[in-house]
Amino acid sequence: MNLTDLADKYGSDKGGNKYRHTEFYQMFMLPYRDKPVNLLELGLQNGGPEKGGEVDRQTDDLPSVKMWLEYFPEGHVTGIDISDFSWFKDNRFSFMQCDLDDPDELAEVAEDLGTFDFIIDDASHASKHQQTSFIELFPKLKSGGLYVIEGLRDQPAKWESDEWPKTADLFEGYNKNGIFRHNDPDIEKALNDLRVDMSGAVMMPAFYVKAKRNNLLIVQKR
Hints:
Blueprint: H1 3-10, H2 21-29, E1 38-42, H3 63-71, E2 76-81, E3 93-97, H4 103-111, E4 116-121, H5 127-137, E5 141-150, H6 167-177, H7 185-193, E6 198-205, E7 214-221
Parallel strand pairs: 1-2, 1-4, 2-3, 4-5
Antiparallel strand pairs: 5-7, 6-7
Helix pairs in contact: 1-3, 4-5
């Protein structure tokens, strides 16, 4: 089964029934399928605070984690979420609970992480969270590794403000001008400090239709 088949099998919205991200992932992940890769995913199940749910909600499934574990039979998956998923037990899965709205908590969690071949941010989709997570976690990528941010066009209003540019706009500006511009000088500096380790940043439009807005960001580490 390819990655899209597995996404649909486990009910992940990354597959053919929703966003179709797995069609793109399959292209660059297939050569690693039987290798002992390390993958980190932020956001493990729909329905969290970004959708009006409670932090202490009852969690009962990890669709994409199950997809990754079957797709990479020799790989290890680490999950980060604001809600508790510690009930899921698998020798190839680790879980760390973290509120991405708390930079200090995120930094503390990052200190305990190893390095990864793939990092996928499918958490709150909030611009602030996407950008602070990228700054903190991009250094955790191995050389040649890929950092992916999903949901560039689906930001929850509760966390958006004029102080934080949309992540799509931020990287579109970087691709055009070769430098990051941000309202927060500390964030701007942190992003520009990472440029030396970025091979490139590619954005894909929703459903791969050119007329639609960019919805998927892929950044490779040198």
